[in-house]
Amino acid sequence: MSTVFIAFQTNDDTRPIIESILADNPHAVLDEQPAMVKINAEGHLVINRESIEERIGRHFDLQELQINLITISGHLDEDDDQFSLTWKN
Amino acid sequence: MDMQTNKKKLGLKEKYAHMTRGLDWETSYQSMDKVFPQATFEGIKIHDWDKWEDPFRLTMDSYWKYQAEKERKLYAVLDAFAQNNGHLGITDARYINAIKLFLTGISPLEYVAHRGFAAAGRNFPGVGPRVACLMQSLDEVRHAQTQIHALSNYNKHYDGFHDFKHMLERVWYLSVPKSFFDDAFSSGPFEWMIAIGFSFEYVLTNLLFVPFMSGAAYNGDMATVTFGFSAQSDEARHMTLGLECIKFMLEQDPDNLPIVQKWIDKWAWRGIRVLTLVGMMMDYMLPKRVMSWKEAWEIYFEQNGGALFGDLARYGVKVPECITQCTIDKEHISHQAWATFYQYGGAAAFHTWMPTDDEMDWLSAKYPTSFDKYYRARFTYWRDEAAKGNRFYTNTLPMLCQVCQIPMLFTEPDDPGQICYRESDYEGEKYHTCSDGCKKIFDDEPQKYIQAWLPVHQIYQGNCFPEGTDPTVEGFNPLAKVLEWYHLEHGKDNLDFEGSRDQKNFDTWRGLATKNT
Amino acid sequence: MQIDLRTVSIKPVRQTFDHIARRFGDKPASRYQEGTYDLQQTDIFHYRPLWEPELQLFDVRRTKVQMKDWYALKDPRQFYYGSYTIARARQQEAAESSFEMIEERGLAELIPAELKQTALDILVPMRHVEWGGNMGNSFISAYGYGTAITQPCLYHAMDHLAVAQYLTHIGLVLDGPEALDNAKDAWMKDALWQPMRRHVENVLVVQDWFEIFTAQNLVLEGLSYPLFYDYLDADFSANGGTVISMMTRFMAEWAAETAKWVDAQVKVAAAESAENKALISDWVKQYRTPVLEALAPLAKRAFGDKAESVLTEVTDQFNARCAKLGLAI
Hints:
The complex is a heterotrimer.
Chain A: E1 3-9, H1 14-24, E2 29-33, E3 36-42, E4 44-48, H2 49-56, E5 69-73, E6 75-78, E7 82-86
Antiparallel strand pairs in A: 1-3, 1-5, 2-3, 4-7, 6-7
Chain B: H1 3-6, H2 12-20, H3 32-35, H4 60-83, H5 96-105, H6 107-123, H7 127-157, H8 164-170, H9 175-185, H10 189-218, H11 222-252, H12 256-274, H13 276-285, H14 293-312, H15 323-329, H16 333-343, H17 357-366, H18 371-387, E1 411-412, E2 415-419, E3 422-426, E4 429-433, H19 436-444, H20 446-449, H21 455-460, H22 478-486, H23 501-514
Antiparallel strand pairs in B: 1-2, 3-4
Helix pairs in contact in B: 4-7, 4-11, 5-13, 6-7, 6-9, 6-10, 7-11, 10-11, 10-12, 10-14, 13-16
Chain C: H1 18-24, H2 31-34, H3 81-104, H4 113-123, H5 126-143, H6 147-175, H7 177-189, H8 194-204, H9 209-238, H10 242-272, H11 274-303, H12 307-324
């Protein structure tokens, strides 16, 4: 299995996003760096709109992720409810 | 008709499909070949453009919404940084030299990327890739401008930034990144996508932006961190475009594989050679270091690139053949490059210096098998000589590689004590390259690479002096005239950091902030 | 150690980059200036393009129009990426809230059937014309000369994509996805649209980028936007179709803004030399004829008996505009 990852700028907007990713992906590993938070995970990683909404108490459009996104690795699939990264090997 | 069921039901994918896919059509008043004249000459076969999968599904209204949000945040930081003299908050004025290299060597290429993606966005016969390329073209002009705007305040206070466009076209080491982008843009649209969209964006930009920008954060440069990370947020979109593009080409026709593989091999190597400059920035130019070049290479190329190529293996794609060489090189290239710039510090538009003892200890810890063995003694010697007033500058001109245009500074794969040269013959002339990788690229397209405008050859041919220069006058100083032609101010932009105007100004200004006058 | 950097008053070494100072003097420069002037490389290209080996990567010979200084073609809006996206984000917010209100409250059902049909027949197929506008302007952005004009042409290309997407949205609001299929069918086959499609395709193969600029941004937009987003829009509003006007407000505002930019380019280029003036004037005359031929059946469908007088008014205004720009048409 290969590692997928996603990294965000460290700020108030991304805190609930990171929390929900870690909650929804128990296999994910947090890697904190200067001004940046990177989440690594074996094989795949999902981000659920609903989990973020639970934490921020408002509607969240997954495309808002782009504002604070730094980088990703893996094949991306995105619909209204879920943003996922996967390596197929 | 039931209006209620027509509306709202559209999901993101479906909505995006309507918003883009239906827009184009099969032309009939003019032939498709005439409308898309660049679609076939490279030999890539595409049977069905509709099979293209859009990775990010941004419509223009969402694009504007999110990008405007990013821009507001970014310019608020830049304004605050300028108003508060944020440049005095960096760790050490040596740091500024890293971003000089960024503005002169990288920002103008973001601009070329903008033009190249506009071309790709016009030339592909499929609407999906075209829209994605155009958005990338728009992002790239953003990157060029936000970098210029972020570094504009540094330019007001420090040397070396002041004529970046003029220098990019002329200065010897800047022909390395410039020729890289010229090479990609002068290729066809498919090769451009493999060169920039895939090899550079997917495989290599993480190496440029992520560790380097974390380094900027470590060194207190919030303006650079902000543009860096803000730019990188667009790269996520660019990377998925690059990956989608390569999958699409490979899925469309098995005949595409050998062409694509050749381009991957070529552009991985071309890109890695350019990134030598980044390796040197990370290991030598950041006063506070986040990670070594080698560590960044291992995370972002070996691990991440490994996952990527593992995934592409199902199409028959192999890891670029340069990987063996790179595994050896990662121990050496940053030291070799810095040693070269140190010696040619009279002709570079940034300052150079030798690391302190602490810094050398860090380098030995990070490079246990190479630094002490091959570099430390030489660096210590140079530093001690400089302390005695014998700062070493070389006055000869180096031989450049015909392909990557880097001086011949790299060593043989099996002997780090031996400079590596390769030679090819073409139409009765000899051409020199720095490595097996560059030689292979040359031999495959000699008619292209013989055109290279090699700065050192051009100096010898007398093409790099200001208009009206008479090289026959007594006491003619060719180097001084070349620097004048570069618009490089001798004594300000170049030479050692120690004693530079940057160093003095930074100390004075910071003194004003910390002491009562 | 806490350093209060704010209190430090230091004198900068220089005010701006040298290439900006050479043009405007060493004084503080705007973000538009630093992000635009002389950004495109002009000297020393390493390799001839495989796709056009007789020219350089960036080459003044890709149009017959000639300028001493290509940066005379500046953008009166002074758009750089940040100011452009922020301006458009504001406009899209207004458009988005209009669409939301219309969809949430089912306001499209209030549109008189006849007007709705006109919008479906005329506005929705125009999304393909907009796509042509995107292609023409992305061509200029790639192969034009000098950032002053290539930069706003990319913004213009993306704006055309946005308009195509707003028109798509209108189709979806009025009649769902079938509206788009029907519009494409009409675009491909109906006699009503063939002169327009032929014209758009003919412009897609033009190689001179300033000719594309003239044909697309001055002539086609200069004649079609007033017709549809001014005259037809007034008809919609006057006859109970304000909801349609709410959905086309972006286009009306955008056309007014961008026409000023287009005018500035044409005026400066024509004033540069008698040759430029003759060239651009000829292009206007050359493209005005097929555009008017293409608009005639559409005007007939939209305005019925009034079509001829509306089209004449639009043409007169367009000719007056060109005359003001110094063209002999």
